[in-house]
Amino acid sequence: MTCDEAEILLHALLDGELDAGHAREVEEHIAGCPRCAALLSAYRNMSKAMADDELRFKAPLHLRQRIEAALPQTRAPNRRAVLKGFAMGSAVSALAATGLVAIVLRREDEQRILSDVVSAHLRSLQAGHLTDVLSTDQHTVKPWFNGRLDVAPPVVDLTAQGFTLIGGRLDTIDGRAIGAIVYRRRTHVINLFVAQTANAEPRTAKIETMQGFNIRRWSERGLNYWAVSDLGADELADFGSKFESAMRAG
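RESULT FIELD:
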């Protein structure tokens, strides 16, 4: 494991978010690397300082009382209103039940895919797993996918915007082979997973967090995108915005 790879995983190690295999690799590297050991010590001291009780502030009781006094006062509903509301609610519930189940199932599917995305990101951080084609040239990376996938993912060079293209690889998400385009922001790796979708409707970008990693997901032009990294949400959102702008300009 290199210093760059270890540094990416230090925060996850501190937060107990690594599996046993990854944790052991990082700890073995730290045991023989004074620089990474010093970084881990600094991160650990920072974490302890942030947890200090002196940094916590509890709002005084009089503030709670003022807020409660400012809230509008509501009267308790009478029995007839309650029964009427119950009857209407039952009818609406019967009509909405099917839609509610569909929403819950769709959300479960989305969470399963996000979990797969994070797992694929973690696998890529192991030595020798990050790229199948190593190049900063988009005209080398994009043709590499031709013939390996039904639809080759778009590849954009964002080096001038601060996100360096370093290559691409094949990966598996939700049991399907898809393309992963790999970028680097300082010491942070960004995996951009791209998969074809049957839904042609674009989907607005959304940032979610899972297992300590930020994920920006969106859909456009018949493709689903998931950008995952330990970068802060703002920087990952900036990456996604620059990628989308470059695609529209192209």
